């Protein structure tokens, strides 16, 4: 199963954290939401690395979920409750971060005046876009007009979030947002690995040709397999890291090694010394980053083990 880079970032990467607040457009808010389902219980993976005076929990997140998925297991609850500090990829929920992100969009998310996105898209991609418009309950002309001023990365992000919301997924039910709210209520300290500007840049900095190709892959896959998200979330919910790695990273490693290096590998390498610094300190910390960064030989867990740390799955 193929997932475009945009879908990966929306579900488990990092850019969605910086861009989700920017992806809410009335153009894409016309579909009726899916009905609420019976509560489902998940058991996602949790790891711990420690030394004599510190304990660091590592937890992979999903940025957008159905409200009925209960992922806060007693084990995760206890680990989170014991932590003094919550470390996340970036500050994207504070008022300051929201203001910064909103100001960036005209600079990095819009095409130059006079250009239109749909004029750059293939006939096949436009046909796929029209199918998606129908699923969202919006006229094709409205959807086309809505994405026309946007660069492909932002258009793909908005369309992905809109389709997920129509399927019953809610950014407000994402793991990151829930943990941030709980940490604020409990008076925990916050730490961040990246800035919001950096996170937006992971997608906006891609070459235009890459952005456009990824948008068209995402549209094609959304039409061919509208239920593609459920298998990925199921792998995360079951704590199946091998399956999660296969679904998310295997194809990108093979077909777009430069993209994989930019979005996954380099960021994981950047985070290793940051986690090591936390371990070298004192107390208990809870690190929550996109779950796509955890599995595989270039995943955060493997890189920490390669660096000599005893990372144990709980």
Explain this structure to me?
It is a single chain. The protein is of the alpha/beta class. The chain has one domain. Helix content is 53%, strand content 11%. The protein has 15 helices and 8 strands. It has helices at residues 5-11, 15-19, 74-82, 95-108, 123-136, 140-147, 152-166, 175-186, 196-204, 208-224, 228-237, 241-248, 250-255, 257-280, 300-306; strands at residues 40-41, 46-50, 54-61, 69-70, 85-88, 189-192, 283-290, 312-313. It has a 6-stranded mixed beta sheet with strand order 6-5-7-3-2-8, sandwiched between helices. It has a two-stranded parallel ribbon with strand order 1-4. A hairpin with a 3-residue loop joins strand 2 and strand 3. Helix 5 (123-136) packs across helix 6 (140-147) and helix 5 (123-136) crosses helix 10 (208-224). The protein is globular.
The Cα radius of gyration reads 19 Å
**Largest sheet entry:** 6 strands, mixed
Our count of helices gives 15
Mean pLDDT: 87
Strand content: 5-15%
Structural class of the helices, strands and pairings? Answer: alpha/beta
What is the string of SSEs from the N terminus onward?
HHEEEEHEHHHHHEHHHHHHEHE
What global shape is seen? globular
**Terminal Cα separation, in Å?**
29 Å
- Give unreliable regions as ranges: 17-24
Q: How much helix is in the residues?
A: 40-55%
Total DSSP E strands: 8
| Total number of distinct structural domains | 1
Q: Walk across the major sheet and give the strand order.
A: 6-5-7-3-2-8
Pfam families: TraB_PrgY_gumN (PF01963)
Protein name: TraB/GumN family protein
Signal peptide: 1-29
Keywords: Signal
């Amino acid at each position: 199963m193929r997932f475009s880079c945009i879908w990966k970032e929306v579900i488990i990467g990092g850019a969605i954290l910086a861009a989700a607040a920017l992806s809410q457009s009335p153009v894409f808010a016309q579909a009726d939401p899916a009905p609420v389902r019976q509560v489902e219980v998940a058991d996602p993976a949790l790891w711990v690395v420690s030394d004599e005076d510190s304990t660091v929990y590592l937890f992979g997140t999903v940025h957008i979920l159905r409200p009925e998925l209960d992922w806060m297991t007693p084990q995760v609850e206890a680990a989170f409750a014991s932590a003094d500090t919550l470390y996340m990829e970036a500050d994207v929920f504070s008022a300051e971060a929201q203001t910064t992100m909103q100001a960036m969009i005209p600079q990095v998310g819009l095409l130059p005046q006079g250009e239109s996105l749909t004029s750059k898209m293939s006939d096949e991609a436009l046909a796929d876009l029209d199918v998606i418009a129908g699923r969202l309950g919006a006229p094709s002309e409205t959807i086309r007009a809505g994405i026309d001023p946007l660069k492909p990365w932002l258009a793909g992000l908005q369309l992905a979030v809109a389709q997920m919301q129509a399927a019953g997924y809610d950014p407000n039910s994402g793991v990151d947002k829930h943990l941030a709210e709980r940490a604020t209520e409990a008076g925990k300290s916050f730490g961040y690995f990246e800035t919001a500007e950096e996170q937006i840049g992971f997608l906006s900095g891609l070459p235009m040709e890459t952005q456009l190709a990824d948008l068209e892959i995402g549209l094609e896959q959304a039409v061919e397999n509208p239920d593609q998200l459920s298998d990925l979330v199921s792998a995360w919910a079951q704590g199946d890291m091998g399956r999660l790695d296969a679904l998310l990273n295997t194809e990108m490693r093979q077909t777009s090694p430069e993209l994989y290096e930019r979005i996954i590998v380099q960021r994981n390498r950047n985070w290793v010394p940051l986690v090591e610094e936390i371990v070298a300190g004192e107390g208990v910390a809870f690190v929550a980053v996109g779950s796509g960064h955890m599995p595989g030989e270039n995943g955060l867990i493997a890189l920490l083990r390669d660096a000599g740390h005893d990372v144990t799955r709980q």
